[in-house]
Design goal:
About 45% of the residues lie in helices and about 15% in strands. It has 14 helices and 12 strands. It is globular.
Length: about 350
Amino acid sequence: MAAQSQIQARAAQLRVRFEAAGAQVVDTPLLQPAGTLLDLYGEDIRARAYVTSDALHGEQMLRPDFTVPVVEAHMRHGAEPARYTYSGEVFRRQEIDPDRPNEYLQVGYEVFERNDAAAADAEVFALFALQVRGLPLRAATGDIGILMAAVQGLNTTEKRKAALMRHIWRPRRFRALLDRFAGRVPVPESRRKLLETEGDLTGSAVELGKRRAAEVQARVEALREDAKSPPIAEHELLALEALMAVRETVHFATEQMRDIAVDLPQINPALDRLDARTAAMRARGVDVENLDFEASYGRTSMEYYDGFVFGFYAEARPDLPPIASGGRYDALTRRLGDGAEIPAVGGVLRPDLMLQLEEARG
């Protein structure tokens, strides 16, 4: 295993390379306000982060990543366009896999560029591919924006689409909602009885867990309204399932998705963006003919990405997390920009894992 001094030296080397690509070095405090992260991820993040508090600053978290604070800093006083690089420790609780470190060094590169999203995506991917060149890695790419466009264009209620959008990053919950909205599964007995309940519950003293009667009543009314909505059409559902299953090289994946777009025409603009990105990657020397594309890639680990996503993996070491990963997060800049926004894309590298693979290779 590489010594900490070796890891820090490699991190410094990577950061210098990103500086040479035009990035400005930035740093962020180890302790981050918990409120922002909780607003983004909900209470789920508590299971993955170290939380502390004091009387002066309130609840805080040890930095779980750099992207959120870098976006916040840029939206406050960043110039346009801008490129940033950073290196430092991030902290993640590892209750499921105790062999994974709960503190490790991360090096990143972020691009805030309004004029040409495809070129910025290609720039970031090509730059990261260059850093890991020579390592036994597989590159995976995807585009969360295509699935989001498919969901937003479904012929169903806005509430159903909003529920599906909330759970795109939770595949099991997303699948369960799809089956329910398509009428593929019977209504659970408990829900059926609740829907058949007559009258107004707000006058009762009933409480379910921490939910008071008024909250229960509002939930019942929402379920009744949803029960009256027609199911998602079978052809739309089948097309959406086919879309999520696409896993091919970029060229063949694009062909498959263009065929699927006959039933999901709302994804065509996102596919046009994919075509533009592929052309920009080819212009930067990326071997797009052999580049893998997975329509569902990133759905379990990339919650703030809303477009292009990528990762570099050691297939011979499935126990290792991605050696590098990243993507586009335009929506995050809107959420943190207090009304402002700017397209943004970036990624991070794990210098410790790079050294580990180099040592194993001899």
